[in-house]
């Protein structure tokens, strides 16, 4: 599902809301999650999962085409850990 499909689904399920308002709500939620992660905070949505930021150390990598050594800088990457409810539903336990 992509963002526009999510917006449409929420708008269809809530006919009393205008589509533009649903779009603003969805964008606000995503923006808040992104902003919290940019500050280094963890975002937990109970039953769904938790978003966090992991730090990857600098290392020496290899260029796959030439085989030359390449220095890879330290970086921060998003990480998602599923919640128990989501895992259970995916595995048919619920």
**Distance from first to last alpha carbon:** 22 Å
Shape: elongated
Order of helices and strands: HHEEEEEH
Gyration radius, in Å: 19 Å
The named CATH superfamily of the largest domain: IHF-like DNA-binding proteins
Keyphrases for this structure?
2 domains; alpha+beta; two-stranded antiparallel ribbon; single chain; 3-stranded antiparallel sheet; 40% helix; HU Protein, Chain A; 94 residues
What does this structure look like?
The structure is a single chain. The chain has 94 residues and is of the alpha+beta class. It is 40% helix and 29% strand. The strands form two sheets. It has a three-stranded antiparallel sheet with strand order 1-2-5. A two-stranded antiparallel ribbon has the order 3-4. Strand 1 (43-45) and strand 2 (49-56) form a beta hairpin. Helix 1 (3-13) crosses helix 2 (19-38). The relative contact order is 0.12. The mean pLDDT is 95. This protein is one of the two subunits of integration host factor, a specific DNA-binding protein that functions in genetic recombination as well as in transcriptional and translational control. This is Integration host factor subunit beta. It comes from Paracoccus maritimus. Keywords: DNA recombination, DNA-binding, Transcription, Transcription regulation, Translation regulation.
